[in-house]
Amino acid sequence: MTSLARLADAGFVTEAPTPAARAEAERAMIAKARRIAKIAAEHAADVDARSRFPQEAFDALKQERLLGIMVPAVQGGEEASLSTIAEICTALAQACASTGMIYAMHQIKASSLVVHCGDDPWHAGFMTRIAREQLLLASATTEGGGVGGDLRSSICGVIRDGDDFTLEKEGCLISYGAQADAILITSRRTPEAPPSDQVMSVLTKDQYRLERSHVWNTMGMRGTCSDNFSFAGRAPARQIIPTPFAEIAAQSMLPHAHLLWASVWYGIAAEAVARAEGFVRGEARKKPGSTPPGALRLAELLVRLQQFKGLIIAGLDRYERVRGDADELSSMGFVVAMNSIKVAASESVGEIVSQAFLICGIQGYRNDSPASLARLMRDALSAPIMINNDRILGNTSNLLAVYKHDPSLSR
Amino acid sequence: MKTKIREILKTTGKLPGDVAALADDADLYNAGLTSFGTVELMMALEEAFDVEFPDTMMNRRNFASIAAIANAIQAIQSENV
């Protein structure tokens, strides 16, 4: 008997699930998310009106154990595919865009650990905790003092103190910072290091203090509670992720963020189209025998939605195909593709919701009708400025002195 | 070839440290090579060696060290003959 078989015999190692069993498990996760989306939908108007955290939906996500599903099986998670996680983001966002976006941001943070920290004892142990305790992860990558949204630049640095480190960061926007169980925070490797020589550290909520400096009061995405805080923390130095943040940002944050954000925005667009469809069906029933005037616009809208869907599916497929290939993930072609998905998706959502207004008319413009598009429009308008599209296009444009695109259809 | 690459690195790529002190296999990203610096470096290399890096070769590994750059250029040159 091999040692692995002995362990399996003793119940320590379970056999890898068959592809069919895995597909079944992933379908079950999506079904759970759709049930939770109903809870999110019930509270979406209140979350928006009061700019409050969607607590009910997150209580349910914890209860149904959907927060740890990206964690590898060896650390006790479900090791769900990115496509499944994207589908969950879409389902939640249809009901409440803030809920979908918080879930996406949490999974983007989980990806930093899952992709880069499997071999690191502390972080592997922390992933086990994420799966077991269903911890909610937040991100502190921005900073005051002129750094703003440039996540590849920090002012503050990690200060070593024996086996521990301390870190203080001013004025950083931390979405759901007050509700998170742990924060992944960027800083310079040392206070003297250049601004781009960054590390990412994981601190649990018992290891930091947050002082709120600005409350999130915005047009849309109001439930993300993206307040500004001053962060002060102290933790053992082994909680600093060994992989440089430059690599984390390029190889795992870039694709996860752009694909999952796009999935959230797709959820908003899909909900706008569903409301327009409901409106057109209602009109059709009022005058049987004639096609309502909005139906032509709706047919056009379905074309745009299909385009949007194709964009995300192709991006997810490309990522799943190359996820283990560091060369491809770090290639300019991949960066340009992911940047392009972000720009296209963030423009699509606003365009689709705008077009839906032409179909629903005054009923879409009202705040109190079943065809209301008001909250969807306000939420959609965040997309082009969530990492400003001009910044992203600027990053792509910096490559064009040497970049040549690959004209093939399949890569 | 490595000497020529080293010469190019002295003037492009905005490396903060002393290029002469870098080993052939030293990690250029750890030495401060940024993504913008990489683009400048690629331009200068394409010019100096009369090559064009195809899309498939424009990744982090091929520009990670002086030795890696030399290998990448040799690979393109051998395909061109």
Keywords for this entry:
heterodimer, A: 411 residues, Butyryl-Coa Dehydrogenase, subunit A, domain 1, Butyryl-CoA Dehydrogenase, subunit A, domain 2, Butyryl-CoA Dehydrogenase, subunit A, domain 3, 13 helices, 7 strands, globular, B: 81 residues, mainly alpha, Non-ribosomal Peptide Synthetase Peptidyl Carrier Protein, Chain A, 3 helices, 49% helix
Strand content of chain A: 5-15%
Q: Can you identify the CATH class of the largest domain in chain A?
A: Mainly Alpha
Radius of gyration of chain A, in Å, reads 22 Å
Mean residue pLDDT of chain B = 89
Give the distance, in angstroms, between the N- and C-terminal Cα atoms of chain B.
Answer: 18 Å
CATH superfamily membership of the largest domain in chain A, which one?
Butyryl-CoA Dehydrogenase, subunit A, domain 3
For the secondary structure, the number of strands of chain A is 7
Name the average pLDDT of chain A.
94
Q: Please, what is the CATH homologous superfamily of the domain at 1-56 in chain B?
A: ACP-like
Q: How many separate helices of chain A?
A: 13
Distance from N terminus to C terminus of chain A (CA atoms, Å) equals 44 Å
CATH topology of the domain at 1-56 in chain B: Non-ribosomal Peptide Synthetase Peptidyl Carrier Protein, Chain A
Number of helical stretches of at least 4 residues of chain B? 3
Quickly give the structural class of chain A: alpha+beta
Shape of chain A: globular
Q: What is the CATH level 1 assignment of the domain at 1-56 in chain B?
A: Mainly Alpha
Spans of chain A of at least 5 consecutive residues whose pLDDT stays below 50 are none
The main sheet of chain B comes to: none
Sheet with the most strands: spatial strand order of chain A? 2-3-7-6
Largest sheet of chain A: 4 strands, antiparallel
